[in-house]
Amino acid sequence: MDNIKKYKWLYLWISAVALIVFSLLMIILKDFGQSVVAYVSAALLIILVIIRFIPLIKTIKNKWAICANAIEMFIDLVCGVLLIVFTVNTDDISLLNIPYAFILGGVIYLRGLCYIVETTFFETKAETLKFMLHIVLLSAGVVIMSRFESFSLESFRWIIGVAFGLSGIIATIDGYNNYNNYRKLYAPSTKKKEKAEVVDDKKLPYRDSIPNEIIEPKDERDQDIVC
Fold it and tell me: How many Cβ atoms sit within 10 Å of the Cβ of residue 72?
């Protein structure tokens, strides 16, 4: 696990390259970009259903509210699968513009409707901000379905392409920071060598404090000879 964290910069840079390449391909290649929008939208619908299902069912007490959310998620799952099937079996991707707009608008409308019904009739606790947000979603779904020509795959091609590019840049910067920290682990130590202990001069013996006999021993020739 530590090795995975140590090489996090490598995974981030690989992800960054993939995101930036996808971004450029989506912007340059029109048909490819529209196909990616359809696949990403379908994958998002399916993944959200998988992630939300068990936690949502466990935390809702009202049986009717559970049924309402289960029906909504089942419809989302079906829309995601149908979007993938349509994209795979369509030679001209532009034919998906109208179905895509209705699927997108319908899913958004259904989310808003489900929340409002759930909080109004099934005694589910509602927050003011979330309630207002879902009213906006309800209205947005109607607008998307009524003006489907303005919400085609082409419209979202640039949005998702730019989002991929920005995500790639952020991943690159994050990878650089992680790589910098990784290199610091192998950098030579910059700690200064410990200073040698300074010897206190007062503790050293000085010449004046040493007996002269030790400093200047007498010559034996100057001594009296006793026979």
Answer: 21
